[in-house]
């Protein structure tokens, strides 16, 4: 069986490809080019990050070591339209997007999957720490957390549909990160000691504010910082510099610590308040994708995560029209942020998720 392995030049994707080769798959390595070469700085040439020439070089070295073919696929146009443009637009609206989720949705498990089909490959494989299993009745594919709780990436994959899950492989889902590092040594891969990249792949130096200043410069302008009552407290540097829950960098003095509690892009204002005002009891989410079930007609009890590193919280999800849902939490949650994803779990299983549109229910505790 042919499988296309997404090879970023990092340890995880390299070990994933090695495991598939060991299991007898006919592995084809592909590195995705997603960012124009004229946008790369000198630090990107040898960095080996997703955007760098070094990523291609490292992936080719790994492919050579494994004895598998390796290709480079140009997805620059679709990446610019679906990931970069969306990232800039969301920030211009005062929202905080997650580009990794969009990349999974439109690049890895759409464009790359299409390329795999062109090559007569039955699967796309990535180095994600997550698992795909068939449900008890065999009718649905389930997305589950990776066994390594510290590396679990199921949150970023909630957008996958049944077709994509049925043609995807996550070889690292049952393995810990420590074991993956040891496996890299055992396979004698040339990237064994390569550090992980924590950057947004298309932003050099991870300085997203400088990036946004160039791409949405017309929206980066000073404005007022107000409290909930509309009182003027100071001036902000442009709404792209702020996100919900932010406390540092406000450059205003008050009798208590102040946090960003809302951003109004139409009025170009940043609203601040005390810590208790950062908490909310619910939210409205859109573009809901249900994985473990068909779209329900009745409320569903879940454990919900409003950010990747946020602790799951008990909640009730009530379906609304047009692929939207209302989420009510048992306990107030801090810094519910429009633009971020909310993902619903039942134990280790991803029930579904969506994009946070607005906050509902002020904290009264």
Notable traits:
SH3 type barrels; Rossmann fold; 25% helix; 30% strand; 6-stranded antiparallel beta barrel; 365 residues; 5-stranded parallel β-sheet; globular; Elongation Factor Tu (Ef-tu), domain 3; 3 domains; alpha/beta
Can you walk me through this structure?
With 365 residues, the protein is an alpha/beta fold. The protein folds into three domains: 2-206, Rossmann fold (3-Layer(aba) Sandwich), CATH 3.40.50; 221-273, SH3 type barrels, CATH 2.30.30.280; 279-362, Elongation Factor Tu (Ef-tu), domain 3 (Beta Barrel), CATH 2.40.30. Helices cover 25% and strands 30% of the residues. It has helices spanning 11-22, 42-45, 53-66, 76-92, 99-118, 162-166, 177-186, 208-215; strands spanning 2-6, 26-33, 70-74, 123-125, 130-134, 141-145, 168-169, 223-227, 232-236, 259-264, 269-273, 279-290, 300-305, 313-319, 325-334, 341-346, 349-362. The strands form four sheets. It has a six-stranded antiparallel beta barrel with strand order 12-15-14-13-16-17. Strands 3-2-1-4-7 form a five-stranded parallel sheet, sandwiched between helices. Strand 1, helix 1 (11-22) and strand 2 form a beta-alpha-beta unit. 45% of the residues are buried.
Q: Calculate the mean pLDDT score and round it.
A: 91
Indicate the CATH architecture of the largest domain: 3-Layer(aba) Sandwich
CATH class of the largest domain: Alpha Beta
| Total tally of structural domains | 3
Strand order of the largest sheet: 12-15-14-13-16-17
**What is the CATH topology of the largest domain?**
Rossmann fold
Query: Any idea what the CATH superfamily of the largest domain is called?
Result: HUPs
How many helical elements? 8
Q: Could you describe the largest sheet, including whether it forms a barrel?
A: 6 strands, antiparallel, barrel
Provide the low-confidence segments as ranges: 39-49
The helicity comes to: 10-25%
Using only CA atoms, what is the Rg? 22 Å
The ordered string of helix (H) and strand (E) elements is EHEHHEHHEEEHEHHEEEEEEEEEE
Structural class designation: alpha/beta
Number of strands: 17
Global outline: globular
Beta-strand percentage? 25-35%
Q: Give the terminus-to-terminus CA distance.
A: 57 Å
